[in-house]
Amino acid sequence: MIHLKVTNLQKRFGGNHVLKGVNFEINGPELIGLIGPNGAGKTTMTNILDGAIKPTSGTVYLGEKRIDQLQPFEVARAGLGRTFQVTRSFRRMTVLENLYVPALAMGNTHGQAELRDKAMGVLEFLTIDHLRNEYAQALSGGQQKLLELGRLLMLNPDVIILDEPFAGVHPRLMEVIYAYIQRVNDEGKAIIIISHQMDSIFSLSQRLLVLNFGDLIADGPPEDVKNDPAVIEAYLGAEEGEEAPA
Ligand SMILES: Nc1ncnc2c1ncn2[C@@H]1O[C@H](COP(=O)(O)OP(=O)(O)O)[C@@H](O)[C@H]1O
Ligand SMILES: [Mg+2]
């Protein structure tokens, strides 16, 4: 059973108090949306959860294991993976090679043929198998996002965090990403989706977290959160008639 527990998580960058004591738990294969204004601390929290940076205080447990002091590869091995708001791939490797890297880095125990089969299955699902021998740098922005989702699938994590997976993505590829999220969730994984695209977030999420400048101001079913006066004031209302922040 998946159990992620975040307790009193704080982060300061100098005088900037970016996370002010965040608490939440994930129990089982929940599909969670994380929203909040630009600069609220969503990416910073993701960076702490995946081990890229250390919290100023507080703890993160994945199951029985404390993960907030681990390195990213150790966190990945423990079962938590994420994608990046700005995609990261090995630009001078092919698409297929990009998928091998995480598996090999984690100490792939399978044979070469099995690894290739798995990678090809992932690429087919993401509709980019025809690009397998292209260099990653030749891919469009949306295809790069799919590649990153593919790299995550190769690791088979229990908990995945997608940081702005829909930003700048063509509608057709968005459908692929939707299907990806549903499939990965159906396979029993917990997912946190960070997005400003309210339509996507409200249609996908079973539960919504709202981060407002370091404080978690709401945590509950999307319908409740949508009508929460504090949320409307802090975030939803403020955006009326404006373009969603990047
Ligand atoms: N590495 C860093 N060093 C200093 N300040 C940072 C760093 N990363 C993020 N911040 C600051 O933390 C705040 C939250 O940023 P971020 O987590 O990226 O917000 P969000 O993803 O919700 O838009 C911002 O004020 C940002 O400038
Ligand atoms: Mg961000």
From TrEMBL:
Q: Where is the ABC transporter domain?
A: 4-238
- Domain of life of the native organism: Bacteria
Question: What's the top EC group for this one?
Answer: hydrolase
One cellular component term from this protein's GO annotations in UniProt = plasma membrane
Q: Does the keyword Lyase apply?
A: no
Molecular function as annotated in GO: ATP binding; ATP hydrolysis activity
Which SUPFAM superfamilies does UniProt cross-reference here?
Answer: P-loop containing nucleoside triphosphate hydrolases
Q: What is the lineage of its organism?
A: Bacteria, Pseudomonadati, Pseudomonadota, Alphaproteobacteria, Rhodobacterales
Q: Write the protein's name.
A: Amino acid ABC transporter ATP-binding protein
Pfam families hit by this protein: ABC_tran, BCA_ABC_TP_C
Its keywords, alphabetically, are: ATP-binding, Hydrolase, Nucleotide-binding, Transport
Species assigned in the record: Roseovarius indicus
Annotated EC: 3.6.3.-
Q: Which InterPro entries match?
A: AAA+_ATPase, ABC_AA/LPS_Transport, ABC_transporter-like_ATP-bd, ABC_transporter-like_CS, BCA_ABC_TP_C, P-loop_NTPase
